[in-house]
């Protein structure tokens, strides 16, 4: 029973902080109205939070009858998180602050040497993102990394990531944590994408949701009942391994899945070459289809057919309320419209198909959601179960700022799993 006052105090602190995060600038009277806490309790907590540097006075209310009141807001950069999107082709990093601002990102080509070179690069880019946004390095309390594979939470390695060599050979999480001096959380990149869309994208409020990324790889992040589905080995949603599109019993399909071999970048290019005898990249194939070239149109039709079947399987298993398509191929309107037309022909309950509204920033935004939830809990819940702060909608910054640092010219850049 002796812990009851401190537990009650922790819940009250979280309530006050949550109200300021969502509604600031806000007065103590307004906080009392929204939380039901006494003005004395709120005054004591506000004084504590202000002394600790988490909130600040912003002025006084005006335009009301009676005395003016002091208003408070959170100090956005009192603590921040780094959110990192590791792709085979590009590496992005941004900073998110306590007010849920996802600040401008920095980006550069992923180091083609992979392994520890990529870990060094992530640490450097996280520091660069902080500097670019004027955030002192010591304000970064946590880093969230979206990886194109299955993170092993026991060993810190990244499995099933063939396009970035060496990540399965050592403790990526521990190595990065040592370099940047803070805790690191690894999460599958497409899992972060579905969280990003659910928090700040085109699917807010939809509790049963899937995000399907189609680029040089194919994968899905799935939410059921508002909870992320990770699977026993953090490999749920690896749709590229569905036995569709090509022979799943060929040895090559054990490394790069049958569907991925047919419907992702390499498969699209190979199919076009087999029909025409000419090589072309994916944008050129889309452009040829737009000009009315029969072979290019046939390739897109076949790709859409495989992806419609994929979504039909996903719908039968998880029954999402919406499927969001993303990635450099999945977001193309020419493909989306084909999938929408085909889906009712292969699924008795075709799902609503949307397109990502966050584009290339979707993984960074999802990382911010995970990171800020962890950070708020660490700073303000005091370890009390159930004492937590819900996040307000994210405010996503403008266009990214590219760094000028070039990757070492030791190898050709690998393709990304998705994107």
Automatic annotation (TrEMBL):
Gene3D superfamilies assigned to the protein according to its UniProt record, in alphabetical order: 3.30.420.40, Winged helix-like DNA-binding domain superfamily/Winged helix DNA-binding domain
Region feature Disordered, mapped onto this chain: 394-419
Low complexity bias locations: 399-419
Similarity annotation: Belongs to the ROK (NagC/XylR) family.
Entries under PANTHER family matching the protein: BIFUNCTIONAL UDP-N-ACETYLGLUCOSAMINE 2-EPIMERASE_N-ACETYLMANNOSAMINE KINASE, ROK (REPRESSOR, ORF, KINASE) FAMILY
Record's protein name: ROK family protein
Taxonomic lineage of the native organism: Bacteria, Pseudomonadati, Pseudomonadota, Alphaproteobacteria, Hyphomicrobiales
